[in-house]
Amino acid sequence: MKRAVAAALSVALALLAFSAATAPPSKVRVVVGFEDASVLGAIEAIEGAEKVKVIPEIRAAVFYLPPHAVDRVKALRGVRYVEEDKVARALELSAYPDVLWNVKMVNAPKVWDKYQPAYGWRALGLGVAVAVLDTGVDYTHPELKGRVTWCAYTVGTRTYTGTNLKNCADRNGHGTHVAGIVAAAINGVGSAGAAPNVTIYAVKVLNDAGYGTYSDIAEGIVLAVKGPDGAVGTADDAKILSMSLGGSSDSQVLRDAVKWAYSNGAVLVAAAGNSGDGDPTTDNVEYPARYPEVIAVAAVDSSGSVPTWSSDGPEVDVAAPGVNVYSTYKNGGYATLSGTSMATPHVSATVALIQALRVAAGKQPLTPSQVYEVITKTARDIGPPGFDVYSGYGLVDALAAVEYALSLP
Length: 409
Hints:
The chain has 409 residues and is α/β, with parallel strands linked by helices. The chain folds into two domains: 24-85, Peptidase S8 propeptide/proteinase inhibitor I9 (Alpha-Beta Plaits); 89-407, CATH 3.40.50.200. 30% of the residues lie in helices and 21% in strands. It has helices spanning 2-22, 39-44, 70-74, 102-105, 108-119, 174-183, 214-226, 252-263, 340-360, 368-377, 398-407, and strands at 28-34, 50-55, 60-65, 79-84, 87-90, 129-134, 148-153, 160-162, 199-204, 211-213, 240-243, 245-246, 267-271, 294-300, 316-321, 325-328, 334-337. A hairpin with a 4-residue loop joins strand 2 and strand 3 (60-65). Helix 9 (340-360) runs parallel beside helix 11.
């Protein structure tokens, strides 16, 4: 009981610290959706208004406003919406010792063994970039060194994109754990990722306490899709976005960013959440996983059972290992964590294997809708026959997904 109270108090204090660091005294942080950018000048002219950032691709801007000015902004011609800039958090639970069972469970090594003789390192994800939207990545970690080639930072009031990876350093550990599940090297040390030859883009959208505003996440989604050259539709775009984070509230700015990314060919994978209650009549899947454009991932343990804390609802698409998963951690270390955060990168890595081997076979990468079909159609049913709200269509199966993907034109 004391441990539970302490954990709850820790989360509450982290939230309070985040709020205090985010908004100046006596002001609120809001997202303003606009029809035309000309209205931004009128908002800036309001006494006490401070513009934080603009995300032109989804016609959104972030402001600090005095509370009394919110209704005034809502009434301006050309404003689509004004909403509180909500907060999402990293979705991991607790740490326990365990073994490297997770990558075997999704059959990633079988993909490597079957396809490496014909396609070389493509069978391990070479040539594909996965954007990890999280607390950053320990790019100096021996398991990840050389894998992280670019980063974007959107936390708070500052935005950065480039190859100075110090800007996206992980002082929390969560993002490094996620990145390791995707791409940790096969070197006989520590853990091996499910797609160990992919390129990682570190997109730091959560602060060092593991929290981030929806607008910071939305901006991170846009920057990840545009990639290092800042242009959509070029070879260096991140077409796979792995988001081990979530919040309980809907948001127009987050919804707009997800739709924009999907329309530009990005496959979005997100954690379903850790708010499960075991009741099939309730829906506790978090955002952005709850959006139809996103592949929502639930967690299973090493026996294939869904833990009660894994969020359930009709939006759950597939499940993956998420209980006692050992992976890389900050400061060159390792940790064993649980949560749908840990399940998500298994699916992101599977998508990377699909796309890398499609290209290796001389075929076009699959579209987001095709990826969804492949992932859900080949998942191994682990619950009641057919779809269920706990595990979706079942446990992701990298080998079956790759085989089916390669059979398509």
